[in-house]
Design brief:
about 250 residues
Length: about 250
Amino acid sequence: MSKVALVTGAGRGIGAAIAVALGKAGFITWVNYSRSAEAAESVCTKIREAGGHAFPIRADVGKYADIQEMFDTIEAQSGPVDVLVNNAGIEIRMPATDYPEEIYDQIMNINLKGAYFCTQRALRTMKERKWGRVINISSVHEDRPTANRGIYSISKAGMWMMTREHAKEFGMYGITVNSVAPGAIRTDLNRKVLEDPAYEEMVLRNIPAKFIAEPEDISGVVVFLTTDEARYVNGASIYVDGGLALN
């Protein structure tokens, strides 16, 4: 029987690439979205065209009730989630002195609270069945501070500690919990700033590999972490950044 994977925030960018890769790897893949049903269905179509099975599912992971309803639906239709990829996230840039409370709450609710409660729900059935994979899509900014995106960095630092806490607590049950920390990736989240040639040049100066990656450069690492070959990788944060964090 095929294992079940859920990728949050999978309608575009890194999440979409991960969902497609998992679908091609044989997982029954649930493609979570919060706003664009059309984008999620497009991702599902790519998986189906490759011979896989995929379903879109709407939920705002910043809302606890939405998370519970999403897992209820998946479990009723496909069975418990075997692989959870916490990818949903937002980044809003502004000086630290300017963040209003509502923006703070929005970032933390989606990036950290959502990942926590999705993981909590998934771990319950993973523990019962003595197998599971939780993969958190973090960022080099979990450990690399930068100006004007402080709340984003704080949320990713929290995700990194969450990864380690869960890895330590649940490793004895055949569950691995790891983070993948991308660097500069050409996604919708970054596209606007990367359209500025001066900004892109500045970013490239800090990347030893001298190129900005595509979302597909992240998905292969995620698929590897779901395999038996990665069964001894637990509590790790794997940087996929061309060496950006070295600076």
